[in-house]
Design goal:
The chain has 712 residues and is α+β, with helices and mostly antiparallel strands. It has three domains: 352 residues, Thrombin, subunit H; 67 residues; 263 residues, no CATH class. Helix content is 47%, strand content 15%. Helix 16 packs antiparallel against helix 17 and helix 16 crosses helix 23. The longest helix is centred in the C-terminal third of the chain and has 41 residues. The radius of gyration is 26 Å and the shape is globular. It starts with a helix and ends with a strand. Catalyzes the removal of dipeptides from the N-terminus of oligopeptides. Belongs to the peptidase S46 family. InterPro entries: Pep_S46, Peptidase_S1_PA, Peptidase_S1_PA_chymotrypsin.
């Protein structure tokens, strides 16, 4: 009966115009493009309540968290919610075998217990301004792509220099949109004193691990809590004991009223990258080269990482963040290739390109302006594909995959242009290496390096490899393992002890003759040569892409367009809705704690452990005010359009109240960064009631509940 009722609600929603909504919209244009539709779908506020040039609004409670996520301010004392996987690096940074916050969680029961997190920042967007006219007026169609790039850089510098800021320390960033057909200016304010306040154990925050990643149904408490600190006058300031909790002008109210199918949802955040204007040529490259490379190389590296992580708590803590970062887009690539093929995206793009070509050729003026767009893109993509193939192998297997290369890179500034030791930089280098070795296990890196070098020998020709591979052939009889053992046995950087000894008595000749330095030198030389070769194709592609996007917009002038995601603030709106991924399969729109308990798997405790305290609360049904009809909700899904970077974004109801945190997309719509799939695309969110339940009943950190504005 429940399924029948929900289906009826979903069908009612469909005939009433409630559907999946494509678009990651820029906030300054909501009044012009979106607000009428948003209100028709149930939104109760105005466009100015979201973004206003003259006063604070909802957008002022949404922040860039760290370098690639979103967060939201939820109290008048600078409390910030984001995803557990967004705070994962900070949690790992503070974890040791003795204080294992990844395994056991962390909860500060007072301000004094909140942990400063060096390097972590929170960024507010204070102002957004369209400066397209000021930049595009400096350009004309006769410019070569290289000259155009120079002119754009000069124009951006001029606009930045003329921008008035509200107070010292604010930053100005200008980004291009629609392939360089539009430019927006963003005034940012960066707070650098951000402290860890609370995080559930990974058995809650990462429940399901790789197995459940990108999947629905989901049962993950993907949240963590931080606090922004500022100088006493509220300005950004580096860490100091004198700093105080930041007093934001706006924070989001938190609703525990729940939701039902068809309810309006709004997400504001910083989606990282989409390619909705991608052509069939680029899809061919993604399907045939980029994703297979990533899947293969990362898969090999991750297997070896996981072996050592499961064997040692110390290594598990050291490599947890590295593994999580690698595996996320490894699985994404698997799902994307699956989705692109199942949704026949290449064929759909070809049809769009044929229509574009026909439209452009139908008019001499259009043909002159847009006719070269697709040929330029094809030339750039197909011409650069072999180079990008090799570059990806070097990036994944060597630059990213062989960690000792990173240690050498951190130490390179120690040797000056005269090939002498710059003693003034010893302290700086020592600090960088100390941070590197904190999360480095030499045996793990040695094992992975052997696999990565062997993989390259098997996959690329001798002419394509850096010259250090010639050393393997000539001096080690082609035995990559023997070469790696030689490097790691003799390098100054193969262990923290050796590096520390070298810094006590640094010697330029010893450094320049170090086998790991020589290896890195040849790898970077080959890598940079490839990058230089690709640049010529990049300029061809940029011109073609810019013309193609402009042409598409000219071809369909009545269509509402949004630019590809580029980690700038965007809004998407949609509804809470179930879906049917395939014949005879129905997915409800929410999950509960019942599902968490059912998924417990002692044979796979790394991914599916359930804390004893959570099981006790479940047995006693001790859910406090966070249950609905005796059931505790955990996750829910909406039709909002999001992508990477939206992790941690606030999911709001029609009144702008927080009902959840976005944290994932769904497996059936993994091609969504290229083509939005309205029937299948869903955003997976952690229910704010589950967040509050974990803080309150599981952790007992009720002071955090007390400082939020709870709407009951």
């Amino acid at each position: 009966m429940k399924r029948f009722i929900v289906l009826c609600l979903a069908l009612w929603a469909g005939v009433s115009g409630v559907r999946a909504d494509e678009g990651m919209w820029l906030l300054p244009y909501l009044q012009k493009l979106n607000i009428k539709d948003m209100k028709a779908r149930g939104f109760r506020l105005s466009a100015e309540d979201i973004y206003d040039v003259n006063r604070y609004a909802i957008k002022d409670a949404v922040v860039i968290f760290g370098g690639g996520c979103t967060g939201e301010v939820v109290s008048d004392r600078g409390l910030v919610l984001t995803n557990h996987h967004c705070g994962f690096g900070a949690i790992q940074q503070h974890s040791t075998v003795e204080r294992d916050y990844l395994k056991n969680g962390f909860w500060a029961m007072s301000d004094r217990e909140e942990i400063p997190t060096p390097g972590l920042t929170v960024t507010f967007i204070r102002r957004i301004e369209d400066v397209s006219d000021r930049i595009l007026s400096q350009l004309d169609d006769s410019l070569s792509e290289q000259d155009r790039t120079v002119k754009v850089v000069q124009a951006i510098a001029m606009v930045k220099s003329q921008t008035k800021l509200d107070r010292p320390g604010q930053e100005v960033e200008i980004k291009d949109f629609f392939g360089g057909n539009q430019y927006l200016l963003f005034v940012k304010e960066v707070y650098t004193d951000v402290r860890l306040v609370g995080a559930p154990p990974s058995s809650i925050g990462k429940f399901g691990g790789d197995t459940d990643n990108w999947m629905w149904p989901r049962h993950t408490g993907d949240f963590s809590i931080f606090r922004i600190y500022a100088s006493p006058d509220g300005a950004p300031a580096d860490y100091s004991e004198e700093n105080v909790p930041y007093r934001p002008p706006v924070h989001l109210p938190v609703s525990v009223k729940g939701y039902k199918p068809g309810d309006f949802t709004m997400i504001i955040g910083f989606p990282g990258s989409t390619e909705r204007y991608k052509t069939s040529y680029e899809i061919d490259y993604t399907l045939d080269v980029a994703n297979p490379n990533r899947i293969f190389i990362r898969g090999e590296r991750q297997k070896l990482m996981m072996e050592d992580m499961l064997a040692s708590d110390r290594v598990r803590i050291q490599y947890a963040s590295k593994y999580s970062s690698s595996s996320n887009y490894w699985k994404n690539s698997i799902g994307e290739n699956r989705g692109l093929k199942r949704q026949r995206v290449r064929e759909r793009k070809l049809a769009e390109e044929e229509k574009f070509t026909e439209w452009a050729n139908a008019d001499p003026e259009r043909r002159a302006k847009y006719g070269e767009a697709l040929p330029l893109i094809r030339k750039a993509v197909e011409g650069s594909a072999p180079l990008r193939d090799r570059l990806q192998y070097f990036s994944e297997a060597l630059i990213r995959g062989t960690e000792i290369i990173g240690a050498v890179g951190a130490a390179i500034p120690l040797i000056n242009a005269e090939k002498q030791v710059d003693t003034s930089r010893i302290g700086e280098i020592a600090g960088k290496l100390q941070a590197f070795y904190k999360d480095y296990n030499p045996p793990t890196d040695r094992k992975i390096a052997k696999r990565m070098f062997g993989l390259l020998l098997d996959s690329l020709s001798a002419e394509e490899l850096p010259s250090c591979f010639a050393v393997i052939r000539e001096n080690f009889g082609g035995d990559a393992d023997a070469y790696i053992d030689y490097v790691y046995d003799n390098s100054l950087f193969a262990s923290p002890e050796k590096a520390e000894e070298f810094l006590r008595r640094p010697d330029a000749n010893a450094f320049l003759n170090d086998p790991a330095y020589k290896m890195r030198r040849e790898v970077v030389k080959t890598y940079n040569a490839l990058v230089d070769s690709i640049r010529a194709f990049d300029s061809v592609f940029y011109r073609g892409h810019r013309l193609y996007v402009a042409g598409l917009m000219a071809m369909n002038p009545d269509k509402k367009y949004y630019p590809d995601a580029n980690f700038t603030m965007r809004l998407s709106y949609g509804q809470v809705l179930p879906y049917e991924p395939q014949d005879a399969v129905y997915y409800d729109y929410f999950t509960t704690l019942d599902g968490v308990i059912a998924k417990e798997d002692p044979q796979n405790a790394y991914e599916f452990a359930v804390p004893d305290k959570l099981k006790e609360l479940y047995r006693e049904r001790d859910y406090g005010p966070y249950a609905e009809k005796g059931v505790l909700p955990v996750n829910f899904i909406t039709t909002n359009d999001i992508t990477g970077g939206n992790s941690g974004s606030p999911v709001m109801n029609r009144k702008g109240e927080l009902i959840g945190l976005a944290f994932d997309g769904n497996w059936e719509a993994m091609s969504g960064d290229t083509v939005f799939e309205p029937r299948l695309q869903r955003t997976i969110c952690v229910d704010i009631r589950y967040v509050l339940f974990i803080i309150d009943r599981f952790a007992g950190d009720t002071r955090l509940i007390d400082e939020m504005t709870i709407v009951r």
